[in-house]
Design brief:
The structure is a homodimer.
Chain A lengths: L11 E3 L8 E4 L4 E3 L4 E10 L2 E7 L8 E2 L2 E3 L6 H13 L3 E14 L4 E10 L10 E7 L12 H14 L7 E2 L1 E5 L2 E5 L5
Parallel strand pairs in A: 4-9, 8-11
Antiparallel strand pairs in A: 1-2, 2-3, 4-5, 4-7, 5-6, 5-10, 8-9, 12-13
Chain lengths: 191, 191
């Protein structure tokens, strides 16, 4: 961040009065620019004993498999965003149950929060969107575990198949942190 | 948004190639500026049969009561942010249980997502921070229902005292929308 988005004056990195950390500030029009985490919203679409995965047609992790998800937009709820991303990436319509939040994950080193909602595929009429190479249903035994794009998706799928065994799906909270390029997984909630 | 924060060129509002909605774009340095919802993270601090509320010393809703909460910062998890805000606004230390997420609320008309975590007060050593006039424990019968600052806090407290009766605290999801200045409450999940 170099310039004020309102008046184009150069920004100054400083601790504003009454605050405890540095922010980009415009001393011309007296604006403080806050930077906050972004939300990634997606679904875990289920059909019978299978889940729907998409193979990424974009970087990062081109060619790897993932659950349909993407950045939440202004003007939508978390669930609306997750449904939109599922339509965009997998061409899939889904039924959302009332208690559908399944995993909540903070990625604090990249300033993201990920939400996955457990949903039912409304039909088998799905197809990869522009950001996906393939969209396919997988049984547990067929999941390409070595080719899953993101840690949060890997852990979400593992929780899901474990929870299927007793048909109890509590909200799972876990955070993913990176340290010295080695992934550490901190399970905040395993209830 | 008027100017590019990287090169100070005037921004253009247009639909970037391959996208489906207008974004602020810099045609000089070829940057697209995405605008996304912000997260508000807070706690519902419990001590015996009481909950801790703060009376706001800032606008909006100066003088009204609320749960300690504020904008999530880059570089923290949702729970870390909620604990930080509880320390800042109520001077309170809390014990966080593993399954502590309690309410999740989208306010799509103002581009916010609110998270409240159910936590235990670690001690009675609390005091209002700079953004609070008072911090006080309330039994259910003492809650100043007509002076609660925000709808999400009102609904979170109502769920909590109802759930106390059978000591079962599932994650509650509900969205708050405004229409013609009249508040509509859409309960997405009442499980």
């Amino acid at each position: 961040m170099n310039y004020c988005q309102y008046c184009a004056a150069p920004l100054v990195l400083k601790i504003p009065e009454g605050e405890d950390r540095e922010r980009y500030c415009c001393e011309e029009c007296d604006t403080v620019f806050y930077q906050n985490p972004k939300n990634v919203v997606g679904t875990l679409p289920v059909y019978q004993d299978k889940v729907l995965l998409c193979r990424r047609a974009i970087e990062p992790r081109y060619g790897k498999w993932t659950l349909p998800a993407g950045f939440m937009e202004n003007g939508e709820t978390c669930i609306e965003g997750a449904i939109r991303e599922t339509a965009e990436e997998a061409g899939a319509k889904v039924h959302v149950k009332e208690d559908s939040l399944y995993t909540l994950t903070s990625y604090k080193h990249i300033n993201q929060v990920h939400f996955y909602f457990r949903v039912e595929l409304a039909s088998l009429d799905f197809a990869p969107g522009i950001e996906s190479l393939e969209a396919r249903l997988f049984r547990e035994s067929e999941i390409p575990w070595d080719h899953i794009a993101f840690t949060v998706v890997n852990i979400t799928l593992k929780h899901y198949f474990k929870d299927c065994k007793n048909q109890h799906f509590p909200v799972r909270m876990f955070d993913v942190t990176y340290s010295n390029k080695k992934i550490k997984r901190t399970l905040v909630s395993e209830s």
